[in-house]
Amino acid sequence: MAKLFRAVIMGPPGSGKGTISKRIAHNFGLQYLSCAHFLQELVATNKTEAGVLVKSYIDKRMLVPDQVVTKLMLPRLEQLSGHSWLLEGFPRTLGQAQALNELYQLDMVISLNVPFETLRERMSDKWIHPASGRVYNMTFNPPRVKGKDDITGEPLVQSEIDKPEALMARLRHYKDVAKPVLDLYKSQGILHSFSGTDTDRIWPYMNSILSAKLPTPNSESHSTPTS
Ligand SMILES: Nc1ncnc2c1ncn2[C@H]1C[C@H](O)[C@@H](COP(=O)(O)OP(=O)(O)OP(=O)(O)O)O1
Ligand SMILES: Nc1nc2c(ncn2[C@@H]2O[C@H](COP(=O)(O)OP(=O)(O)O)[C@@H](O)[C@H]2O)c(=O)[nH]1
């Protein structure tokens, strides 16, 4: 059996983690797990103590405490044993990275660096379908019908947290929390940073680095799914 590949993608809000993760998962046949989506699903479907606790943090857009999130994510990862995977949004903190390190040897950590001004422009053009989390950008990946989700036809909304002041605060927070995590992965020699203003220009570099490390079950081409 081919060696399993374990990767993590990191980057500030709006840097294209979700967009690029879907391309990687599609091209290389990895299982893609977004921690935020996983937590949101848990909140929606699991009315246990854990679900209620997670909801109390998500409602305030706060980070869920490390012990809580690792206790949920690590068993979820165990369900993916036998698969190569790409994690987005986990680990977010040094504590989470250390907990993950105890169980898995990561092959690669992708870090996206996108200038603030670009993030600000993107976020002012970003629309979401709240129920599914599908994300659109009015220039980069617009919905088929203006203002409507491609799958359900329901209305798209813009979020308060994507407005410039809120974005600036989220960015500052990201930098503080991510720095020790990135330092750890750098010291392990597995950090690959990609800088740029356009996902479509970053992607070919990333694709070629990944192609050297991974077999490609799917072709070079990519679709830009929104779910
Ligand atoms: N690994 C994690 N550890 C703790 N809390 C988390 C983690 N991942 C997500 N959350 C929480 C933080 C928020 O309350 C909520 C949504 O997270 P997320 O969608 O990542 O938004 P965000 O604004 O923090 O970042 P981004 O816009 O980069 O995705 O879930
Ligand atoms: N204009 C533009 N928008 C982009 C580009 N890449 C991603 N986006 C959009 O930027 C927003 C944030 O992207 P997303 O992948 O959700 O970033 P994440 O928050 O890091 O997961 C979404 O609306 C995307 O459609 C790009 O290269 N140019």
Write the layout of secondary structure elements.
Blueprint: E1 6-10, H1 17-28, E2 31-34, H2 35-45, H3 49-58, H4 66-78, E3 85-88, H5 94-103, E4 108-113, H6 116-124, E5 126-129, E6 134-137, H7 164-187, E7 191-195, H8 199-213
Parallel strand pairs: 1-3, 1-4, 2-3, 4-7
Antiparallel strand pairs: 5-6
Guanosine-5'-diphosphate is lined by residues 11, 13-19, 122, 126, 135-137, 139-141, 198-200.
Task: Write a structural description.
By secondary structure, the chain is of the alpha/beta class. The chain has one domain (6-116, 166-213): Rossmann fold (3-Layer(aba) Sandwich). Helix content is 46%, strand content 14%. The protein has helices at residues 17-28, 35-45, 49-58, 66-78, 94-103, 116-124, 164-187, 199-213, and strands spanning 6-10, 31-34, 85-88, 108-113, 126-129, 134-137, 191-195. Helix 1 runs parallel beside helix 8, helix 2 crosses helix 3 and helix 6 crosses helix 7. The protein is globular. The two termini are 30 Å apart. The protein binds 2'-deoxyadenosine 5'-triphosphate and guanosine-5'-diphosphate (GDP). Residues 13, 35-36, 39, 57-58, 61-64, 69, 89-90, 92, 96, 170 line the site of 2'-deoxyadenosine 5'-triphosphate (DTP). Its EC number is 2.7.4.10. This is GTP:AMP phosphotransferase AK3, mitochondrial. AMP binds at residues 62-64, 89-92, 96, 170. Keywords: GTP-binding, Kinase, Mitochondrion, Nucleotide-binding, Transferase.
Brief sketch in words of this structure:
The chain has 227 residues and is of the alpha/beta class. It has helices at residues 17-28, 35-45, 49-58, 66-78, 94-103, 116-124, 164-187, 199-213, and strands spanning 6-10, 31-34, 85-88, 108-113, 126-129, 134-137, 191-195. The protein has one domain (6-116, 166-213): Rossmann fold (3-Layer(aba) Sandwich).
